[in-house]
Specification:
The complex is a heterodimer of chains A (127) and B (367).
Chain A lengths: L2 H4 L1 E2 L4 E5 L4 E6 L1 H7 L2 E5 L6 E2 L4 E7 L3 E5 L4 E6 L1 H5 L15 E4 L11 E2 H8 L1
Antiparallel strand pairs in A: 1-2, 1-10, 2-3, 3-9, 4-6, 5-8, 6-7, 8-9
Chain B lengths: L7 H6 L3 E5 L2 E6 L3 H10 L2 E4 L4 E6 L3 H6 L14 E7 L5 E11 L2 E6 L4 H10 L7 E4 L4 E7 L3 H7 L11 E6 L2 E6 L8 E7 L3 H11 L6 E2 L2 H10 L35 H10 L3 E8 L10 E4 L2 E12 L4 E9 L9 E6 L2 E8 L4 E2 L2 E2 L3
Parallel strand pairs in B: 3-13
Antiparallel strand pairs in B: 1-2, 3-9, 4-7, 4-8, 5-6, 6-7, 9-12, 10-11, 11-12, 14-17, 14-19, 15-16, 15-18, 16-17, 18-19, 20-21
Helix pairs in contact in B: 2-7
The chains are: A alpha+beta (127), B alpha+beta (367).
């Protein structure tokens, strides 16, 4: 099963992957990064920071503009991907395997997933 | 209604990402702004800049008329030469910045920004007075292509045009078998040419340039790279770095304001007084000391005090640092080599004031 079959996507183009141990991996969809163009800067929160669903947890900048990144679910940050912070241009190659942004710990309510879409539906919605 | 240039289909075929810019549906990038930028610095790039305005000014008093609306001395502009200038209002604030070409004894071509064509025309008509002059907006009749980069001259030669022409001159010539006006100008900080061609020939010319340019590594270049290229060269973008509340002196354009011009023009007394006595704000160039990017509209601080605002900012693909232009209060202490701060997402980030431009032609300035 490929990652895109397991993720859920938000309308603001973040994805969340359930690691099935109470933690979730969060990143930006390939569509989001393609739309942004050359990624040159990424700002992510500190480990330990807590965010509610919908809150801004980071900033991504392309050559043209800065965009905020929103939490697709609530959670506490347990890891950030230093590799992509150091070399954000890597996001233009891959956003799922190595290009994830943060991992969070969350006892998230089911209702928070209600507005998230499966990847195929998300892609369809874009068309 | 968003307008389309005569090359719109070409952009779509090439897979460009299209955006609305100044009322036009234009390519912002074809592949990658970074790659396109480097192509122009190292090889040669092709731009569609047909959205820009072309206004012909002719008639017995055309020189006197133009001389009454711009600070540059048009009486000194000779046949086939071009001059960069501005269109000030009565207060010296800028309605637009322009290139004026002399095409004949009483005939001139004025190139204006796409977003300002209507304002420029209205202003020209208001200032027509008793001058015997004809103002003819031909923006819809011509396409404008820019061929920019160190290999632009080789490509022009290959296209059957003798590229050996002085910088800031314009000539009637034949490129790829098509008659057109060719000027050695551009807005990228590189050597290059701008080709003004009747719309009907635009696609044929575009194809010929891309085909013959292959051996020189040509790529089509979008507005995204056009912006980073002009910013590295510290060339102003109207609407960002220039507006109706900014004079040419404040914008650092004193070099384009002759002090000995006898003819009167709009805003002359204010502009010359500023040139002589100094101004309250000035445009500075800054380089960020960390990886944060100063964007248009961000506040600039000096010694804990808010002193100004960023008007253009982006990563510099050539220098691999983040660069910006900002207007600050004209205090002596803010000078080249000193530190200012930019407020980015509620935090202050250090930046160093540097000399303009960030990147010189074929000569990268160390920062």
């Amino acid at each position: 099963m490929s990652i895109t079959e397991k993720i859920l996507c938000s309308k603001s183009h973040e994805y969340v992957l359930d690691n099935e141990n109470g933690t979730y991996t969060i990143g930006l969809t390939d569509y989001a990064v393609e739309q942004l163009g050359d990624i040159v800067f990424l700002e992510l929160p500190e480990v330990g920071a807590e965010f509610k669903k919908g809150e801004t947890f980071g900033t991504i900048e392309s050559v043209k503009a800065a965009s905020e990144i929103y939490m697709p679910i609530s959670g506490k940050v347990i890891a950030i991907n230093d590799t992509v912070v150091d070399a954000p241009e890597a996001l233009n190659e891959d956003v799922y395997e190595n290009g994830w942004l943060i991992k969070v710990e969350s006892a998230v309510a089911e209702t928070e997933f209600e507005d998230l879409l499966e990847y195929e539906d998300y892609k369809e919605e874009l068309e | 209604m968003t307008k389309e240039t005569f090359l719109h289909e070409k952009h779509v075929e090439l897979g460009a990402k299209m955006v609305d810019f100044a009322g036009w549906h234009m390519p912002v990038q074809y592949t990658s702004i970074m790659e396109e930028h480097k192509t122009v610095r190292e090889n040669v790039g092709l731009f569609d800049v047909s959205h820009m305005g072309e206004v012909f000014v002719s008639g017995k008093d055309s020189m006197e008329f133009l001389n009454s609306i711009v600070p540059q001395d048009i009486s000194k502009l000779v046949y086939e030469k071009a001059v960069y200038c501005q269109l000030p209002n009565k207060n010296g604030g800028l309605i637009d910045d322009l290139i004026i070409y002399k095409l004949g004894i009483t005939e001139y071509l004025v190139i204006c920004n796409a977003s300002r064509i209507d304002e420029d025309l209205n202003w020209m008509i208001r200032n027509e007075k008793d001058f015997d002059v004809k103002i003819n907006n031909c923006s819809n009749n011509y396409s404008l292509l820019a061929v920019q980069g160190p290999k632009a001259i080789d490509l022009m030669n290959k296209l059957g045009y003798d590229g050996n022409q002085d910088s800031f001159t314009i000539k009637l010539g034949t490129v790829a078998g098509i008659k057109m006006l060719v000027s050695r100008t551009g807005y990228t900080g590189e050597d290059g040419f701008e080709l003004m061609v009747e719309n009907v020939h635009a696609e044929k010319l575009w194809d010929a340039i891309l085909r013959e340019g292959q051996e020189f590594g040509i790529k089509p270049i979008g507005l995204g790279a056009r912006d980073t290229l002009r910013l590295e060269a510290a060339l102003h973008l109207y609407g960002n770095d220039l507006d109706e509340n900014t004079t040419p002196i404040e914008a650092g354009l004193s070099w384009s304001v002759p002090k000995d011009k006898t003819a009167d023009y709009n805003g002359k007394s204010i502009i010359l007084s500023q040139a002589a006595n100094g101004v309250d704000k000035k445009l500075i160039a800054i380089v960020m000391k960390d990886r944060n990017i100063a964007r248009h509209g961000y506040d600039v601080y000096f010694n804990g005090e808010k002193v100004g605002i960023v008007t253009s900012g982006a990563p510099s693909p050539t220098l691999n640092v983040n660069i910006a232009l900002a207007y600050v209060k004209n205090v002596k202490d803010i000078c080249v080599g000193c530190n200012v701060q930019v407020m980015i997402r509620e935090k202050l980030h250090d930046a160093e004031v540097v000399k303009k431009p960030f990147v010189k032609k074929h000569n990268i300035v160390k920062v």
